[in-house]
Structures are given as structure tokens and as C-alpha cells.
Amino acid sequence: MPNLSSSLAGLHNQQLNVLAPSGIRGFDKKISSVDGLIKLTIGEPDLDTPEHVKQASVDSILNNDSHYADQTGKKELRDAIVNHLANKYDLKYDADSEVIVTVGATEALYSTFASILNKGDKVIVPTPTFALYFPIISILGGEVIKVDTSDDGFILQPEKLQAVLDENGDSVKAILLNYPSNPTGVEYSKDDLSKLAAIIKEHQMYVLSDEIYSDLTYGVEHHSIASMLPEQTIYISGLSKSHAMTGYRVGYICGPQEIIKKIGMVHAFVVTSVTNSAQVAAAEALKNGENDPVEMAKIYQERRDILRDGLTKLGFSMPEPKGAFYMFAKIPAEYGLDDEKFALDLAYEAKVGVIPGNAFGPGGEGYIRLSYASSKEVIEEALKRIEKFLK
């Protein structure tokens, strides 16, 4: 195994020196060696990719669909994305100039930020939230403004947004919204979004709207800020959660043609194009699998109710998840805000794995995130172990 030349020591992107490893993956790895651990840690659907979607991928391979696809994505998939968004959320995009197919929503986020950020630009991120956003912004030279929403039901209030904009002026390049939320499961209502849109409209800034969980909601209708502010919104989503296709790595970006063209340049430099068979599977999912997320949502809602009711009986409190498949529960008072210690104790003593809330930024301290993308039987056993632990 070669060792790096001593003359090259330290010759790398210095931004990497200030990046912390993923709190989610890091904690999951730390406790994974616990024998018999029930893992409610990672947002990984335990449901199978629908059969018709898998078969489409297989057929693509067998039909020798093995040459470069269009860099913005296969035409059939871009058309399917446009039709899906129009039919379900009344969002209007042109498949040829306003859509890019990406390697998951993660690449969508990276390519978008790489296209809009200059060194020192600021991005407003309501917290607690999916912590991957922070390092992407930082490595590209941007500055994250974390806005704690824990005192406001985990919803960014318009007064708080206005105050941040007043304080930071023209240095704010964008705001990133994620709803339904990872880690809280909280969903923004149409009224919530309208109030934020009215403020954002008065400023020269983008909205990055990460709506990867939009197809998994419970008893509420999902609305997109892109319908209220189309000229400033960059819409990001994908198939990972809606159709249990995390390993296929298919996401997409939609937005005004001018900025999509710039994002497409970065995307092309980074990945060239997305794997053909995965794109064909995604097109099948959107064209003929509109009901697949509906059925999955019913399963997740049943699990949510079991976990919520069980935790509530044990004395936990949490915002009601109206989407995604996470629960953000406040830890017992005797632990104070030390969610790391509580999560470690729970793993080593009760053999239940959860993620400490501090991994999701300010406002997450004193909470734990539990994923209910696991079977009812697993969740019920986890509740029994938690109850025994608390006693």
C-alpha cells in the first residue's frame, strides 16, 4: 500500500479540514457493533422496490441500453417527471429546458449549490434539519445561517426569516427548505409557505426546496413553494423515498431555464449522466407507479401511529409527523439536553439504536430521531426494550 509523499502532506482542499463527519452515519457506525441492536437510525425504507419498476430496470439491461444517455436525463424520464409534478402538485416545467436528472437528491443539492454560490455567500437553513446540507454549503465556500425553529413547532416563522434577512442584507444568496422534514416529520402548510414566499419575493435570493418526502404524507395535502414563487425556486426531489429506490440513485432538479442551464453545466462535469437502467426504472415508477407511494404511505402511517402512541405512553413528547418516516422525540428530563448520552445508553443497555438530535443542528439538542421505516414487529419490540430501559 503506498503512503502519500511527505511533500504532498496538507496539499488538499483546505475546506475539508473544517468539515465534521456526518453525525448520522458516524453515530450509526459507533453503535452498529452492539450485538442484537434494533436499528431505528438510518432513513432506509425496508419495503421492496415495486416489481414493475425492477422489471423495467432489468429489461433496460437485457435490451442493451448501455450507451451514454442525454446529460440532462433520458427524455422519457424528463417527460415523466414533468407530468408527475403537473398532475400531482400543479407545477409547470418544460422537460427539454427546465429539468435535470441527477444521481440522487444529494448530487442535485451539490450541483445546485456549486452553481449559485460564490465565496462568502450565505444560505439560510432552518434547523433542526438533514445535516448533509451544512458540509455541502461549506465545502463550496458558502456560509450557513442556521435558524433554530424548535420554539416554533419546528416551522420557520416569517418574522424570524425577516429578522435574518434584515441582519444579513444582500449577502444571503438562498434559503433551503426541507418539507416534510427530516428529522421532525413536520410539514409546512400552504399558509406557512405563502407567508415565507411573500418575504422571499422582496429579495434577490433563491429558494432551494427539497421535497424528497412529498409523496409520503399522512392526512395532509402537500404544497410546494415552487407553485407560489416559480421564478425564484429550484425544486429538488427524487425516487429514493417515494418508491423505496435508495440504491438506484435517481433524483431531479427543476427550475427556471436560465439557472437550470448553469446547474446542467456542473452536473455534466461531475457525473456526465445517470445510469440508464436506473433512469428507465424511475420513468416506469412515475408513469405506472403513481399508486405505489400511496400504498407505502399507508404502511408508514400505521407504523407511525404505533411508535407515536407507544412513546407517548412512555412519557415522550414529539411534534406529530405528518410526512416522511421519522419521529423526533424529546428525551427524559433527567438527561437534560444530553441526547448523545441518552442515545448511547439506549443502544448499549436497551439495544435500540436511534440518532441524537444534536446531529441535525441547533434546536435538535435534547431530542432523538427514530426512523419508522422498519416493520411493525421491529417497532413493537423496540418499544418494549425502551420501556424496560426507562424502568
Give the strand order of the largest sheet, numbering strands 1, 2, ... along the chain.
2-8-7-6-5-3-4
Query: Please, how many helices?
Result: 12
The CATH superfamily of the largest domain appears as Type I PLP-dependent aspartate aminotransferase-like (Major domain)
Proportion of residues in extended strands: 5-15%
List the uncertain runs.
Answer: none
CATH topology description of the largest domain:
Aspartate Aminotransferase, domain 2
Written description of the protein model:
The structure is a single chain. Helix 7 (190-200) links the parallel strand 5 and strand 6. The protein folds into two domains: 6-48 and 292-390, Alpha-Beta Complex (Aspartate Aminotransferase, domain 1), CATH 3.90.1150.10; 52-288, Type I PLP-dependent aspartate aminotransferase-like (Major domain) (Aspartate Aminotransferase, domain 2), CATH 3.40.640. It has 391 residues and is α/β, with parallel strands linked by helices. Helices cover 40% and strands 14% of the residues. The protein is built from twelve helices and twelve strands.
